[in-house]
From TrEMBL:
Any GO BP annotation: tRNA (guanine-N7)-methylation
Organism the protein comes from: Smittium culicis
Cellular localization per UniProt: Nucleus
InterPro entries: Trm82 (IPR028884), WD40/YVTN_repeat-like_dom_sf (IPR015943), WD40_repeat_CS (IPR019775), WD40_repeat_dom_sf (IPR036322), WD40_rpt (IPR001680)
HAMAP family to which the protein is assigned, alphabetical: TRM82
Ranges: WD repeats: 297-320
Protein name as catalogued: tRNA (Guanine-N(7)-)-methyltransferase non-catalytic subunit wdr4
Cellular-component GO terms for this entry: cytosol; nucleus; tRNA methyltransferase complex
GO MF: methyltransferase activity
Pathway involvement of the protein, from the record: tRNA modification; N(7)-methylguanine-tRNA biosynthesis
Swiss-Prot/TrEMBL keywords: Methyltransferase, Nucleus, Repeat, Transferase, tRNA processing, WD repeat
């Protein structure tokens, strides 16, 4: 009997360069060229009849590639002899559990953590900038079982690997691309030097919250450096015509207890400011890249269903020469997505939480958990005051492309979004036991004349992308499960 199988969803999309993205599916990821519609590198075995000779096999450590059960589709490998170097297929099937004999203690060992496939799922990943000296670029990823892996993207080889003491929720490269940071469920953020040998790869504590860290991003703030002053009414005033700026890097960390904190980097014991206003756990932080601006704006999302726009620009100049201060963050706007998208929200959804926020130039895209829609905004920046704002351009229904004759289980609910360098929006759709999409991945471009999203399937294709398949779709996991989970320090 042929058992039907279901594709796994692409849970993360991350832009690698102008035409390549990293697509995460469960415990594997693929590097895909969406312009040529071809696979560049992958972590799972492609069936022989569909193999791509130009595709590089990423050699994962054995810890990540584990025996596939009905969840991970290794049926085709059961009857074949595999070479020892093929980490995906050479492991043995786990033995069946023995029956317990009445009156005797079972000596069966406890199930290994490796048998729980969910522990090997990729939790988050980050792409570094290109190192000018070595012309190298790196990818870092963290898994549910506390592993940190760092890859060099030229040959897709592992340059470093370590195990964190706690499970991590977020990973980011710093602006220098020489260090990688992880944020864990203990509330701490650690820094690793990516070029040290694994034996010397020791974590350096950077900062800590008294709550679980959920998200992390870097931003730049600009301090006026006064080069000339004029006299007005006997007082020295800054001459705008001769004002220059120094840059400083800050790190933004969101936590389960509604706070977003901005700290100086790398001396993160110096707190720049707090963004206080959410009433639920923080789920997303986005820092728009503003052209020709000394403003620093931040967009945050949370389990309260709101997206908030903040101005965290510094109000101090280098004249103050002060490190220990608490600069103010200004809440510019709060947007209730449950009100804007009320017509798209199913009556069975009792709680609304922001799933992802991405920006590119003046465009900002937001998706909400369980809602078949993309919320598209335009960011208007007020260079001199506090009137910057997000203007709603469109609430795009992702279900508008599906065949209405299909059953209710079919729905295109966004799982993740990512802008590419050409301002095109890449979207992946959720796949689980309760919902199945008509398409796994899709791309849109912004029509400036109509201010709408339009499909660009003629230019961007994912027809040759082959995700892992499972016999039984996974149960959907809500962000509210981990957002309100008790703080278990022993895990």
């Amino acid at each position: 009997m042929v058992v039907s199988k279901t594709n796994t969803e692409v849970s993360k999309i991350l832009l690698l360069n102008d035409n390549k993205v990293i697509l995460v599916s469960g415990n594997s990821f693929s590097v895909y060229d969406y312009i040529s519609d071809s696979l560049v590198a992958h972590t799972t075995t492609i069936p022989e009849n569909e193999s791509n000779s130009s595709c590089i096999k990423i050699q994962f450590p054995e810890a990540i590639i584990i025996p596939e059960t009905s969840e991970t589709n290794l049926d085709s490998a059961k009857s074949e002899d595999k070479p020892a170097e093929n980490l995906n297929n050479d492991t043995e099937q786990a033995p069946k559990k023995k029956q317990k004999i009445s009156g005797a203690k079972s000596k069966e060992p406890k199930s290994s953590a490796k048998s729980d496939l969910s522990l090997f799922r990729i939790r988050d990943l980050s792409v570094s900038g290109v190192d000018v000296e070595s012309n190298s670029q790196y990818v870092a990823l963290i898994t549910e079982n506390k592993q940190l892996y760092i890859y060099e993207t030229k040959n897709w080889t592992i340059v470093n690997h370590t195990e964190n003491s706690k499970r991590c929720n977020s990973v980011r490269f710093d602006p220098s691309s020489k260090f990688v940071l992880v944020a864990d469920k203990f509330g701490d953020a650690y820094k690793y030097s990516i070029l040290k040998k694994p034996a010397e790869l020791k974590p350096e504590l950077l900062l800590g919250h008294v709550s679980i860290l959920t998200s992390m991003e870097f931003a730049t703030i600009y301090y006026p450096r006064i080069t000339k002053a004029t006299e007005t009414n006997g007082k020295a005033e800054d001459s705008v015509a001769h004002k220059e700026y120094n840059e400083r890097t800050i790190i933004l960390t969101g936590d389960r207890d509604e706070k977003v904190r901005s700290s100086m980097y790398p001396n993160s014991y110096n707190i720049h400011s707090y963004c206080l206003g959410h009433t639920q756990f923080v789920t997303a932080i986005n820092v728009p890249k503003l052209e020709n601006s000394t403003k620093t704006l931040v967009i945050t999302g949370a389990g309260d269903g709101t997206a908030k726009l903040w101005d965290i620009s510094s109000k101090l100049s280098e004249r103050n020469n002060c490190e220990n201060y608490n600069d103010s963050s200004v809440l510019l706007q709060s947007i209730n997505l449950s009100q804007i998208g009320s017509s798209f929200i199913d009556s069975s959804i009792s709680e609304i939480g922001i799933l992802s926020i991405k920006s590119s130039k003046e465009l900002v895209s937001i998706i909400v958990e369980g809602v078949p829609a993309i919320f598209l905004f335009k960011l208007e920046v007020d260079q001199s005051g506090n009137n910057s704002k997000l203007i709603l351009l469109e609430t795009f229904s992702t279900d508008s492309i599906k065949d209405n004759t299909l059953n209710d289980k079919v729905s295109n609910i966004p799982a993740d979004i990512e802008f590419d360098s050409q301002n095109r929006l890449l979207v992946s759709y959720s796949v689980n036991s309760k919902v199945s999409p008509t398409i796994l991945l899709e791309a849109f471009e912004f029509d400036s004349e109509t201010s709408k999203l339009v499909s660009c399937k003629s230019n961007i294709k994912f027809s040759n992308f082959i995700p892992p398949q499972v016999e039984t779709p996974v149960e959907p996991k809500s962000i509210f499960e981990w957002g309100r989970k008790s703080f278990d320090r022993n895990n």
